[in-house]
Amino acid sequence: MEQYVYFSIVFFSLIIFFLYIYIIYEKIAEVHKNKKIEKYKREVTPYVNFNINKVINGQDITSDILKNIKRYCKNKYKREIIRKRLVYYLENFKGDFSQNITKVCEYIGIVQYEINNFQHGDNFKKALSAKRLGQFRSKNAIEPLLEESDISDNDVKYNILLALAKIGEEETFIRAFENVDSSVGLSERGLIEIVDSFEGDKNKIYKKMIHSDNSLVARVFIKSAGNYKHASLSRDISKYLFSEDKERRIAAVKAIGSIGDARYLDDVIKLLKDSEWEVRAVTAKALNNFTNSKILIPLARSLSDNKWYVRYNAAMSILNYEKEIGMSIISYAFQRKDKFVRNIIISAIENSSNNKLYLYETSKDNTKRAVECITMEKKDEEYEYNVN
Fold first, then answer.
1. Membrane-spanning regions, if any (predicted)?
2. Domain-wise residue ranges, the chain
3. Structure confidence by residue, pLDDT tens digits, 37-78
């Protein structure tokens, strides 16, 4: 037994010793690697910057220079430095010259290098290479990306779609999204961000995909079109304000509200009486984007809705109305002596980002003074309740 104990001590001591040696080796190797990278940066970065700035200024890079940069790329450290510099210019500078920078990426071989990593790597490498291929914006990557567009790994799929968005080829992007369905693990918000980042003809993809038979895809493109805020899309979107699909109605009213197209204001107001409370709540919030005073009376009626979120969004939209007529609606609501209406208005005031309730006490506006007074009474009641 005693020998077994000694043997165990020696064995584990050796393990700790070799682990310590390994850690020291890794630290030394990392320091050596960093020094080498810094040396290469001083050599490569100014050279790449000088020549890419020539491209930006409309000048040509000679074949000798391109061949020299290509030779640099045979070294993995230099290739990574060059990749980062080229991506920096592609991500931060926009113009016709971007296509020429992409051609440089293709010529020196870093696009093909990432395509090879994408096709033969594990899912982590696939996701990383897909991201980089999107940054290069090379159409050479389209077919390899499309071939993997139905992959089940969410991280890879997200980066494939994002890459195709940055490449900006309309038909390819549409084809990729036709494979997206509710079984995909990507969030709707994530998909909207991808569509928002599309760098091709956005009108073309919206006109096509807003009418997709795939409910999820249609909603994503409708909401993204709202973010795009292009009034030419309002007519297509408005067709779904009264869709039988609740989620499409919600997407459509959000988009029309975001665009602020007054041509469809009457239709949006009608949705304050929708059978689904979620639609009514979104509508009350969307009306905040319109300046026409006709929204105020319907919103005032919604202050008595049986759902809290509808009442709250209606109150916020009224309070955010910039003209003084908004305060007259508040006065009208207070005169109804409805406890729920008063409470929801007070809650909206207290949660408003531009809460100026402290100014109401000395205001010359009777309505504002009344709001301040009732708010203070409510706070006193809550304080007494908590104390007791």
1. 6-25
2. 291-388
3. 888 899 999 999 999 999 999 888 899 999 999 999 999 999
